[in-house]
Structures are given as C-alpha cells and as structure tokens.
Amino acid sequence: MSAGHHPRQRPSPVLRRRAFLARTAGAGLAASGLGPLLAACGPFADAAPPRHLRLAAPNHPITWPISAQNRAIATGLRAERDATLRVFSWKGHVSPAFLDAFARRFRCRVQLSTFTELGQALASLRGRHGAYDVLLGAPTYLTGRLVGKGLIQPLNHRYIPNMRNAWRIFTDPYYDSGWRYTVPYTVFTTGIAWRRDLIDADPYALASGWDFPWVAGQAAGRGKTAILQDYRESISLALLHDGGLDLNATDPLLIDNAEQSLLDLAALTGLRIGNDTSAGLASGRTLIHHGWSGQVAAAARLLPRGVAADVLGYWFPPDGAGPVGNDTGTILRGAQNPVLAHLFLNFLLDGQNALVNIAGIGYTQPLDLITPKRLVYEGILPASLTSTCVLSTYVDHGLKELQLPVAVDELWIQAWRAVSRVSARRPVSTV
Predict the structure, then answer these.
(1) Contact between 376 and 383 (Cβ < 8 Å)
(2) What is the pLDDT of residues 59-78, one digit of tens each?
(3) Which pLDDT tens digit goes with each residue over 146-158?
(4) Is residue 3 part of a domain?
(5) How many structural domains is the chain composed of?
C-alpha cells in the first residue's frame, strides 16, 4: 500500500475530470515555477511564499534567517509612553479582561482589531503596513510565509522571560526553531461537537468518530450540521472520514475524494459552513458542528439560563491521534510600539494572566500551570468538557497541518471552492 492510503480509500478506477487535470497539470506547474501564480488565486494571495521557500515539518525543523534589514530591537529599551498598542486577532480570540489588565499594568491603551478569515487578515496586513503592532492567531503553517514576505520581525528574547512557563516543545518548535519569530499562543484540537440533549447518537459509540456528521447529520435535520470555514480543517475532516491520517495529502485523487465526501455530506444534511461553533451549538441553530476545542468550551457560557453545560459534547480521539495545532503570537515588522509589543507577548505567557484569558475565550494556552484539573478547579471549564483540553502529549503525537507546496495548496483550494459553492446558500455567520 502506498504512503498516505488506507484500506477505506480505494480510488475509483476512473478519475473525475478535475482530478485528472489536477494530476497532469500540477506536476508541470510545480516544475515550471508557475506555482506562485496559482497562489495568487487562493485565500493567501497576499502572502504567497517565495518560490524556493522551505517547508517546515517535525522531521525537518527550520531556523528562519534574520536579515540585516529586519533585526530584533535592541536590549534595554523602555516601553513606549502614552502609547496605544494595536492588536490584530481572530474575533473572540483574546479576552477583553486580559487586554484591560495589560493596559492597567503598563499604563497604555489597547486597540483591538479582529478578523474572521485568514485570507482577510493577510490582505489587511499587506495593505496596511504599520497599522498593527501584534498579530495573534496565525497558524504555524503560515510562519514561513510571514517571514518570507517580511511581515513580522524577529523577537528579542530578553523581553520575554515568561517563555520559561511554556511547554518545553515550544522553546524549539519545528516551524520556528529557537522561536526566533513566534511565541505559542493558544493550543487546540479539532473534533466533533454535538448537542447531547437533542441528538440520540454518540460519536464515541462509532468505530471512527469522524463519521459522525455523515451518520447522524440527516437525523439532526436539514441545515443543522456545520463544518468549519477553513479549507485546511474541513478538507482534513473529509480525509479522516475517508480513512486517511495524512492532513497534508498531495495525491490529487485523495483530495478529490475528500471533496466528494463533503459534497455528499452537503446533499445529505443541508450542510452549513461557518466558524460560529460556540453560538450555533448554544442556541441550537446547529446540533452537530465540526469545530475547534476552544469554541466548544466557550459555548458553555452562551447556553440559555438554566441549561446545564453537560448538554454539550465534544469528541476527539481519546488516544490523541487527531488534528492538534497551535497558533502564534508575533510582532509585525511595521510595529509602532515594538517594546510594548514584546511586553504584551510576555504578559500572555504568565500563568495567572493566561487563566484570565482562557476564562474569556475558552481556548487553552500551552503553559505548565494550565491543566484540565486546574481549569475545572478555577471554575473556568465544566468537568463535562475536559475533552476540550489539550495535553502536551497531543502536541507530540497528534496530526499536524503543515505548509503545503504551492501547486498542491491550489488543489485543496479548488476542492474547497466546489464545496463552498454548494453550501453558499446556507452559511453560518462567522463569530
């Protein structure tokens, strides 16, 4: 059996037209150097990587270079006075209480701008150079692109002593060896959430919980099943449903099969696409939602008065062999307040501050102080949702999304466009 295949993934003897074209054209594009032109059509057009950008992986860690034109700030500088720190983050991904605490501590103002899609965020960064100081929430597979395009600046570690509180793996992560440009922000798993009180089914009872949307979605009712508005995550869901374990598939046929599985799900359930897992589950607008662990934890605080948190369920493989990721905190190259930005990243890595932040957003931070037991004790997480907690062992052994070669990335994007068109009339508004 070839690498990346599984007994459940038996390719059809006849390739569909799109897969055939992808297979024959993709290799030629990569060889000809036209891959970057394809990327201009995708969601990351404004951050298309340089042609010879290396691809980081656990077995191929990368230390990103520091150029003479983009060096870390000097040691011993004072924080900018009477400043407004400008933070750019996923919507709902940083706690207002945490931001207020930072502002009080450093006698500054904090201005938060948010985004709901990565493509939107990267376009904003390219078009508004110098508009923000800190970027929160970039996935690790974008690190190389951010460095390659000169959008972020290297860190001066002297200003970030709290890095000692982070899980050891993040002091030398494969995607940024020596943490030259990034600190870890939140860590998460991607699994299946459902309303226990409204669906008479349980993904833990299945041989593979990844099948749950297909198995129970029809019974949940039309338009009650949703997947993430994230092309990497949702195509990965289909790959897992099809029996694979490679979240970075390069075989056009596997990508094509994943597309078809999502199209089948759309036909079966009236599929919705959106990132409002928390609000959708809490309100009952969605009963099954493929989502990030932090979103499900946050949903508990949005339930109507009198509804217990145990109506929410979250499935992730108990052995940790599922999608595990972390996003990052970085300082933008055009930062107007770079010292304050360093202090902000350091503030994030303090355990007590992290508890305040987690209480507001649901996402776990990878610090030694943060454990499932501690979160339950502090009243931050219901005991019924400890499955949303991420353990350090998951980071070691979980499945990771890595940066894809440009031509392969375009195949994923093509598949996602096809699924999005089918579900375009049933979007879940992003929150």
Answers:
(1) yes
(2) 899 999 999 999 999 999 99
(3) 999 999 999 999 9
(4) no
(5) 2
Task: Tell whether 273 is covered by a domain.
Answer: yes
Classify residue 130: in a domain, yes or no: yes
CB 48 within 8 A of CB 145: yes
Asked if residue 332 and residue 253 are part of one domain, the reply reads no
Q: What is the CATH number of the domain that holds 404?
A: 3.40.190.10
Residue closest to 5 by CA, chosen among 254, 321, 255: 254
What is the Cα–Cα distance from 138 to 365, expressed in whole angstroms? 14
Whether residues 154 and 284 fall in one domain: no
- How confident is the model at residue 128, as a pLDDT? 75
**What's the whole-number mean pLDDT along residues 2-20?**
40
Split at pLDDT 50, 70, 90, the class of 118 is confident
The verdict on 411 and 276 lying in the same domain is yes
| CA pair distance 303, 410, nearest whole angstrom | 39
**What is the rounded average pLDDT of the residues 185-211?**
97
Residue 25 identity (one-letter amino acid): A
Residues 182 and 223 in one domain: no
Same domain, 167 and 225: no
Note whether 415 and 256 are within 8 A (CB): yes
Q: Show the domain range for 258.
A: 189-323+400-423
**Does 315 share its domain with 330?**
no
C-beta atoms surrounding 58 within 10 Å: 11
CA distance linking residue 259 with residue 417, whole number of Å:
9
d(CA 185, CA 182): 9
Question: In this structure, are residues 291 and 228 in contact, taking their beta carbons and an 8 Å threshold?
Answer: yes
Per-residue pLDDT reduced to its tens digit, 122-140: 888 887 777 999 999 999 9
Greatest extent of the chain over all pairs of C-alpha atoms, in Å: 67
* pLDDT at position 346 over 80: yes
Residue with the larger pLDDT of the pair 430 and 78: 78
Q: Are residues 270 and 340 in the same domain?
A: no
Structure confidence by residue, pLDDT tens digits, 264-276: 999 999 999 999 9
Q: Please check whether residue 182 is in contact with residue 366, taking contact to mean a CB–CB distance below 8 angstroms.
A: no
What residues pair up with 288 in beta bridges, in sequence order? 194, 225
State how beta strands 183-195 and 312-315 pair.
antiparallel
